[in-house]
Design goal:
Radius of gyration: 15 Å
Order of helices and strands: EHHEEHEE
Structural class: alpha+beta
Strand content: 15-25%
Shape: globular
Strand order of the largest sheet: 1-2-3-5-4
Largest sheet: 5 strands, antiparallel
CATH class: Alpha Beta
Number of strands: 5
């Protein structure tokens, strides 16, 4: 069951360095790319390779690729970063995506009310629709922010 999200605003959670428990047994794969719009496709390609190696494909893999594309694009457009880190953790039932920027933007990610004829502005609403939950927290080193999303490994319809 999805927690209620009012206005598709992100949730906060503790910084990555403060986590303990079962996650320590599921290592996180991380890759870095320049903060360029041209790198969005490369980020998706790397994610698909990592997901396939863990047996995550089909609708769940497609959803993860779409979410990563949105988060990476937002980091490029709004953070004034030169480099972006992408991370993936896969567990038995969930997968977690993280996109870390250098936090040079003026504000935190938030969904906006896009006009009917606007070309953009719906990315975080899409993330909210596809992910079980998502949010933002500061990077562990205090420089930048991490926007994360958690997806179920079970297809949205409950079956393949």
């Amino acid at each position: 069951m999805r927690p209620e999200v009012t206005g598709a605003q992100p949730r906060r959670e503790p910084a990555a360095g403060s986590r303990t428990g079962p996650r320590a047994h599921n290592p996180m794969d991380v890759f870095h790319l320049p903060a360029l719009g041209a790198c969005v496709a490369e980020a998706r390609r790397r994610l698909r390779t990592l997901l396939a190696a863990r047996g995550v494909e089909g609708e769940v893999g497609d959803d993860a690729g779409l979410i990563l594309s949105e988060l990476f694009t937002n980091a490029v457009r709004y953070s004034d970063s030169t480099r972006i880190a992408c991370a993936l953790r896969v567990t038995t039932h969930l997968l977690r995506l993280e996109v870390a920027d250098q936090g040079r933007g003026a504000s935190e990610p938030h969904a906006k009310d896009a006009a009917f004829d606007e070309e953009g502005g719906r990315g975080l609403l899409l993330v909210d629709a596809l992910a079980q939950t998502w949010g933002v927290h500061p990077c562990a080193d205090g420089h930048g922010r991490v926007v994360w999303a958690v997806l179920s490994r079970e297809p949205r319809g409950g079956q393949d």
